[in-house]
Amino acid sequence: MKRRFIISIFAIGTFIPFVALIIAICWGCWDAATTSATLLIGLIAADVVVWQGYLIKRQLAFSTYLELDKEWSSDAMIKLRQSVHAPGTDKWDYSLLDGILEFFEKLASMFTLSGEMPFVYQSTLGWYAAHYFLFACKHRQIEHLRTLWKEDLYTDLEDLYALYVKSEARRTGKSQEDWEKERLSTECKFWEQEREDSRSANRDAYLGS
C-alpha cells in the first residue's frame, strides 16, 4: 500500500510538468517550456532512482527470505520444532519457544523493512509464523515470556500476525474471530505434525489431513 502510494505520487508529479511542457510548446511559451522540460527531466531521473531503490530492496528481501527459509528447514530448527510443545498437554519449553518466536521476529522485521511486501506473509514461513504466534498467544505463552524477560517482545511479529489474519479473513470471507477459532480447532494436529521430521512437507500434510 505504501509502495503504491509513493509510486502514484511520483507518477502524478511527473505527469504535471509533462502536460505543462506540451501546453507551453503549443502556445509558443518557450521560457515556460524550457522550465517545464528541465523539471520533467529531473523528475524522471528521480523516478528512476526510486524504482531502482525499490528493486534493490525487493531483491534483498528475497535473499533474506531464502536464508530464513533454509534455516527453518535445517536439522537444528527441526529439533527445536519437535520439542517445543507436546500435543494435548500444557508442557512448553520456554527457551525453545522463545528461540522460534525470535526467528519469526526476524522474518517480521524483514517484512517491515522491505516495505511490507505481501509475498512474506503469503509464504510458507508467513503461515508458520501466524500459527506459532496464534497458538502461543492463546495459551498465554507470549504474555509469560514478556513477563519473564520484562520486555515487550515480538512486536513486529504481532504486527505481521494482525496483517496475516486480516488478509486471511478477507480471502476466506470469514471474520477474524471465526478464522482464529477454526485454526485453534486444528492445533493438536499442528503440533503432532511438527513433531515429525517431515520438514517442508509439514504444512501440506497438516492442511491435507
Q: Rounded to an integer, what's the Rg over CA atoms?
A: 24 Å
Domain tally = 2
Indicate the percent of residues in helices. over 70%
Number of strands: 0
The major beta sheet can be summarized as: none
Helix-and-strand structural type: mainly alpha
Strand content: under 5%
**Helix/strand order:** HHHHHHHHHHH
- Average pLDDT metric: 79
Intertermini distance: 35 Å
Shape: globular
Count of alpha/pi helices: 11
What ranges have pLDDT less than 50 throughout 5 or more consecutive residues? Answer: none
How would you explain this protein's 3D organization?
This protein has 209 residues and is mainly alpha-helical. It folds into 2 domains: 2-55; 73-208, no CATH class. Helices cover 80% and strands 0% of the residues. The protein contains 11 helices and no strands. Helix 3 (75-83) crosses helix 4, helix 6 crosses helix 8 and helix 10 (187-194) runs antiparallel to helix 11 (201-208). The model has no long low-confidence stretch (mean pLDDT 79).
